[in-house]
């Protein structure tokens, strides 16, 4: 009798994956990656100009900037994707599972974008960028994952 009760009470942990709005999350990630790609191209032009005009005394500071930029870019993409989801798709109830599902959608589209002949400066899939994505989605979406 006890074994049957345990088998009935256990849920399939992957069953919730089937109910997530994957098509909408891919659309949100696509919009965020397209906007971020445009900003990336402009930022690359600005940084080329900055490197040409900076003195040699500021080069160590520029190296620190280049180390922090992928994390900041990932943070910006994650935050942008969450804001797009909040503004354009108001019918979606955003909770922890939606936030977690948004991360692989963003990573997938950034990975696919790497195969396109679009020049990139910061938007290539890397560990710092994915860490920035996680931080951007979960710091900006703090009010969504702290709900009870």
Molecular structure report:
- The protein is 75% helix and 0% strand.
- With 148 residues, it is mostly helical.
Which geometry do the CA atoms define? Answer: elongated
Number of strands: 0
Rg, Å, rounded: 20 Å
The percent range for strand residues is under 5%
Low-confidence stretches: none
Question: What percentage of residues falls in helices of 4 or more residues?
Answer: over 70%
* Structural class by sheet pairing and helices: mainly alpha
Biggest pleated-sheet summary: none
Jot down its keywords.
7 helices, single chain, 148 residues, mainly alpha
Brief summary of the model shown:
The protein is mainly alpha-helical. The chain contains seven helices and no strands. It is elongated and about 60 Å long.
